[in-house]
Amino acid sequence: xxxxxxxxxxxxxxxxxxxxxxxxxxxxxxxxxxxxxxxxxxxxxxxxxxxxxxxxxxxxxxxxxxxxxxxxxxxxxxxxxxxxxxxxxxxxxxxxxxxxxxxxxxxxxxxxxxxxxxxxxxxxxxxxxxxxxxxxxxxxxxxxxxxxxxxxxxxxxxxxxxxxxxxxxxxxxxxxxxxxxxxxxxxxxxxxxxxxxxxxxxxxxxxxxxxxxxxxxxxxxxxxxxxxxxxxxxxxxxxxxxxxxxxxxxxxxxxxxxxxxxx
Amino acid sequence: xxxxxxxxxxxxxxxxxxxxxxxxxxxxxxxxxxxxxxxxxxxxxxxxxxxxxxxxxxxxxxxxxxxxxxxxxxxxxxxxxxxxxxxxxxxxxxxxxxxxxxxxxxxxxxxxxxxxxxxxxxxxxxxxxxxxxxxxxxxxxxxxxxxxxxxxxxxxxxxxxxxxxxxxxxxxxxxxxxxxxxxxxxxxxxxxxxxxxxxxxxxxxxxxxxxxxxxxxxxxxxxxxxxxxxxxxxxxxxxxxxxxxxxxxxxxxxxxxxxxxxxxxxxxxxxxxxxxxxxxxxxxxxxxxxxxxxxxxxxxxxxxxxxxxxxxxxxxxxxxxxxxxxxxxxxxxxxxxxxxxxxxxxxxxxxxxxxxxxxxxxxxxxxxxxxxxxxxxxxxxxxxxxxxxxxxxxxxxxxxxxxxxxxxxxxxxxxxxxxxxxxxxxxxxxxxxxxxxxxxxxxxxxxxxxxxxxxxxxxxxxxxxxxxxxxxxxxxxxxxxxxxxxxxxxxxxxxxxxxxxxxxxxxxxxxxxxxxxxxxxxxxxxxxxxxxxxxxxxxxxxxxxxxxxxxxxxxxxxxxxxxxxxxxxxxxxxxxxxxxxxxxxxxxxxxxxxxxxxxxxxxxxxxxxxxxxxxxxxxxxxxxxxxxxxxxxxxxxxxxxxxxxxxxxxxxxxxxxxxxxxxxxxxxxxxxxxxxxxxxxxxxxxxxxxxxxxxxxxxxxxxxxxxxxxxxxxxxxxxxxxxxxxxxxxxxxxxxxxxxxxxxxxxxxxxxxxxxxxxxxxxxxxxxxxxxxxxx
Lengths: 263, 776
Description:
The complex is a heterodimer. Chain A is 37% helix and 26% strand.
């Protein structure tokens, strides 16, 4: 076997191994059927940059309440995937206590688990790995939602207006300054409201005529322009928009956008 | 650079104190009854610093004392002083990991001592250093024995082979001589039957000779083989013999030292009972000579021990397959390298200079005297009565020995007079007794010269001290012992604060203010508080007035293992295990709690809240204060959940109304069941009216959200996925220290209820509402 063959062989082995890891990652994400059962009309546009992803989505039901999250772990590819598996396990552990927690407290607990797992104590030299996340709790019985975010925001479109509900400016993981509790935003919702949570992959993608970032303003405008469409159709429009924007550019990060329509 | 903990072994009644952690706020009280061993702990610390011990500290089994202290010293400071020799690899990292410096003073039979450095990790590094270059003792021993046996066997074998060969050669010689004789005879015969017969005999003999020669050759070859084997074994045997030999020599040297030591003891005893001064002098002379001999003998033991270690290493290497020359070379290199490294004792010696100084506040030297010779101060005669107090006074007054070198005594007197006008010891801030409150106390001193009434000192200068108030001027000894003690104690602390060169200090005080009034004893505590940032204080007491009920974490309790037997060993309980001490040992705390009942409106007919322990007391009082809720509640902490029942019985007996707050943990639930059964006719409804369980919270700490627990209680940033109470238990933290820290932080940093997050506010609010509804 010459040198080139050897490299090719190694590359194949590595890709196979990552591909298998990708299968495992997909297996821990909620299935389409499960999501259809617990969520009102929705779409999930999930496009990893590599085979495995640092972005993940998670959803579960506790009594009559449904929790759904979109998260972005530090890094993409394999390191991001490790973090994402950890994030999903921790979120499951937290809700498995069967105590209906406010979204802010779920994020507080998630942060404690991540800091403990990564031995983060606020020293300047330790790794600052962690994740950004947007977490929503849907409470259809009381027509309200709770939202908490670690850097990531929630977009709510009602009556053709887009409202930005910002998350706290700190990550799930050790913060540069002392950690504070995550805020829980409680919002009354009404039928037809559209909720969007997402990671920074879509607005940060380079492309367009001037090879610039897509940015949040255009992203909000685009969502406003499509929000009346059927949810599945919204997903295809987003995919299309991304393909057209990106053009020949490489995808720079994992992309995740979740849309939910309140019934 | 602080003393964090200490451990005393084989010191008077203390066999093994275990590690006694000092209070993190630098004031540690040791409580216990008389003869419990409190003072022994202080003296052990003094001995650790000074290295001196008396005969009477030795235990009857003659096991030698050891005192270890652990210090909080940054590794950079350690690195900075270790510049004379090389530091074994990994040592500084070990110090950094252990985050503390442990020094242990060990004493030898002759009362000499050395300080060894290192906690467990450091010890391991040194053990490994030696072990990596040597076969283990038992393994080496077994190998040596095997080699010597084998050599013996082969030598025997060789000897036998040589003997057999010699025998054969002798036989062969005889045969050859006989053969030549017969051959001559055969030649002389012309012919005939006789010649033929002789010829046949000669042939036979020839065969015999050839056979014998063959046998002799075989024996020689076998001897050669065996001899070769022996050649291989000889160097091994030599090194093995050398190991045995040097070990024997170590044994002889030790015997010799032991013999001299026994002589030394005998001479010391003889000196004590010497009937006359002359005999005492003679004994002293002999003692000096014998001491010299002992030191020599000790040196010999050390030298031979090192030689033994060398031989062992050479043997290990030779047995391992190295040539003799190579083994010697490697051993010498290793030892020379080893000598270039700090030994544990050398390391201990170097690092000892970093630690704070330990000083015992003693009445004899530290109480202000009436007078002291100037020469005793200038010559630093610390054994002079009142030396320390006089020195402290001069420091506080800003005087140095140069001041007294003024040749003109009239000018000097004038200067002193001016100084006396200026020197007011403003200690009334700390001294609430009427004398201090109403009158300013002044210490005056004068320079006088001995007159003819002291013929041996006539003309020599001395300092005389006076304590003045607005009414009179008295010698220190004419004042009450209390005033004198407090003043001297105050001077000591002030002087320490002034002496910039002294660095950090550990002040050991045995029974402070024994002669002080109860209020004045509380003033002593105030002084401790004022100086604790510069001086770490460790004091013994059985006075309740020298204990702060809000800071029980400062206490170590000392008692005999068998409280009925004063000869049994001393055991020490720390803040976390205080409840395990006997009630006699804890009596100052109980007295204090009792005495506070009347003074602080501890219990009232209504609105009494009984809590499980002191930590709950800190939390609840702070919660009430923060939430601005009902203030007329009277909170009574028990010393442990198991004692709650007793308090409940007492209050019921006195006809006072109360509620109890219990944790929702195993012990809290057990107490709830017990009280429900015994006091409330097994009715949950009735019990719930009086007992408030922290439902779903295992203890008060769980009322905090994790974030607030870390911020306001723990003062640390790390991930805590478990309950706060579980974290405390898993990490062996003291609940009372954390709770006291919380209370202090709230007070010092002006924490408000709104600073907590909604989770904490909600939990605390719910608890306080519930308490209020139960009380009304």
